[in-house]
Amino acid sequence: MKKLILLIAALTIVPPLYAQPAPPPAAGASVMSGGVVRKIDASNGKITLRHGPIANLDMPGMTMVFQVQSTTLLKNLKVGDAVKFHAESINGALTVTAIQIAK
Predict the structure, then answer these.
(1) Could you tell me the domains of the chain?
(2) What is the pTM of this model?
(3) Which of 31, 54, 64, 76 has the fewest CB atoms below 10 angstroms from its CB?
(4) Would you write out the chain's pLDDT as a tens digit for each of its 103 residues?
(5) Distances, alpha carbon 39 to alpha carbons 23, 77, 83, in Å
């Protein structure tokens, strides 16, 4: 009887063989979100975007100001451009880490 209880306990702890492995954290880290440039403040390293949902931040669509990781990201952008971008929370600040004009 003890062996049966131990076997049942072991089987409930071990994941099933058909279980899918969790995706690596980096897989969701590069997801791009869509938006439109509303304002560019290069001297302060900020950009205002009207954006759709940002999946990796679990954020609904809205218009907001983001820091940019580097002001070089702002080159070639102008107000009204449709863009694809990636944002992360870095030290508590929502920061655009990649951005490109949408095609």
Answers:
(1) 24-101 (2.40.50.320)
(2) 0.71
(3) 76
(4) 777 776 676 666 666 655 555 555 554 556 899 999 999 999 999 999 999 999 999 999 999 999 999 999 999 999 999 999 999 999 999 999 999 999 8
(5) 35, 10, 13
